[in-house]
């Protein structure tokens, strides 16, 4: 635990607390063990990406408001930091676009003032055109944005944005943000077989990226079940050919690896809460909860039999999802 200030750790034994807005720590391909903070109702987003692992967007909007009471999120975070507080990162991510929450900056500020755990903001970048959103986002240690299209037509095909979002304005917002943000700016490029997977597609994205100079660039593809069935992963060998199209060179996001959290206690509720936020394989559940794979199989089997979770085909191994 990495607490600052007056909060103290209390021993909660093996009790797994239930939170409304926190989930995990869950395995993350980019951030190891990451405690997720969910600031929007399920699939409330300014995009409806064809590759989204959460399924189709149910509320597509650019309306910023206090979707959930910020004081309740802060209370939960304070409690989590006191009672367990073990994670590599705290990520504003989850069920939708976190910058739609009008007070997301206060959540970041609370964590920064209370803990040493770095805060990551995962955003599609669509609202960084607004100065107040940039100011709030600047409080994070790392901001990870995404850009997977080099022109408006592909942007609309892949990200299916809300009506008032244009790619050139989004990129302008990223350029402004880069100038104002002292932390690390990461870029994720999602490559879809046959849609944005030609060298020309990647070169154009690279040209746009060069205008806002991300510190790290990561290539991802559809290894988890996507929102649309026509989205297929690009083979690793092909992704490797795109690495040096970018400056700095892109990295292919490595498979998740993480040490178990010995103090974490798994039960069906914990697994269910993880799977409601993101699909995981049995191995990932085992890694993050420190459970033997046979024990994971037992819980997963029961949740599947009772229709609380479903297995979906991944690239090589099934991913479990909770509707
Ligand atoms: S991938 Fe992110 S930006 Fe795209 S629809 Fe899903 S939550 Fe929204």
CATH top level class name: Alpha Beta
Low-confidence stretches: 1-14, 256-265
Number of strands: 12
- Gyration radius (Cα, Å) is 19 Å
- From the coordinates shown, what is the CATH architecture? Alpha-Beta Barrel
Give the helix/strand class.
alpha/beta
Number of helices: 10
Small molecules bound = iron/sulfur cluster
Describe this structure in words.
- The longest helix is centred in the N-terminal third of the chain and has 14 residues, at 70-83.
- The strands form three sheets. The protein has an eight-stranded mixed β-sheet with strand order 1-2-5-6-7-8-9-10. Strands 3-4 form a two-stranded parallel ribbon. A two-stranded antiparallel ribbon has the order 11-12.
- It has a single domain, classed as Aldolase class I (TIM Barrel), CATH 3.20.20.
- Mean pLDDT is 86; it is low at 1-14 and 256-265.
- It is of the alpha/beta class and 323 residues long.
- The chain is 32% helix and 16% strand.
- Strand 8, helix 6 and strand 9 form a beta-alpha-beta unit.
- The chain is globular and about 50 Å long.
- The chain contains ten helices and twelve strands.
- Residues 45, 47-49, 52, 54, 57, 96-97, 124 line the site of iron/sulfur cluster.
- Iron/sulfur cluster is lined by residues 45, 47-49, 52, 54, 57, 96-97, 124.
């Amino acid at each position: 635990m990495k607490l600052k200030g007056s909060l103290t750790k209390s021993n909660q034994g093996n009790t797994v607390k239930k939170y409304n807005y926190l989930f995990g720590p869950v395995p993350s391909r980019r951030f190891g063990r990451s405690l997720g903070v969910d600031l929007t109702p399920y699939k409330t987003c300014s995009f409806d990406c064809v590759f989204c692992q959460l399924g189709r967007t149910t509320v597509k909007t650019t309306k910023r408001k206090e979707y959930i009471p910020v004081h309740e999120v802060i209370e939960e975070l304070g409690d989590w930091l006191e009672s367990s507080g073990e994670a590599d990162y705290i990520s504003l991510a989850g069920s939708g676009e976190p910058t739609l929450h009008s007070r997301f900056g206060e959540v970041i500020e609370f964590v920064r003032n209370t803990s040493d755990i770095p805060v990551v903001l995962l955003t599609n970048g669509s609202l960084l055109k607004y100065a107040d959103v940039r100011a709030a986002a600047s409080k994070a240690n790392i901001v990870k944005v995404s850009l997977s299209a080099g022109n408006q037509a592909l942007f609309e095909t892949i990200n299916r944005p809300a009506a008032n979002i244009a790619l050139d304005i989004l990129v302008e917002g990223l350029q402004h943000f880069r100038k104002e943000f002292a932390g690390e700016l990461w870029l994720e490029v999602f490559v879809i077989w046959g849609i944005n997977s030609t060298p020309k597609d990647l070169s154009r994205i690279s040209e746009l990226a060069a205008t806002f100079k991300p510190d790290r660039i990561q290539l991802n593809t559809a290894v988890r079940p996507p929102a649309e069935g026509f989205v297929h992963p690009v083979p690793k060998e092909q992704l490797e050919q795109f690495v040096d199209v970018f400056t700095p060179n892109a990295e292919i996001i490595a498979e998740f690896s993480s040490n178990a959290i010995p103090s974490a206690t798994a039960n069906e509720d914990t697994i269910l809460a993880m799977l409601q936020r993101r699909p995981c394989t049995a191995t990932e559940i085992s890694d993050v909860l420190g459970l033997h794979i046979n024990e994971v199989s037992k819980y997963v089997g029961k949740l599947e039999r009772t229709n609380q979770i479903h297995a979906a085909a991944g690239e090589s191994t099934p991913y479990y999802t909770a509707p």
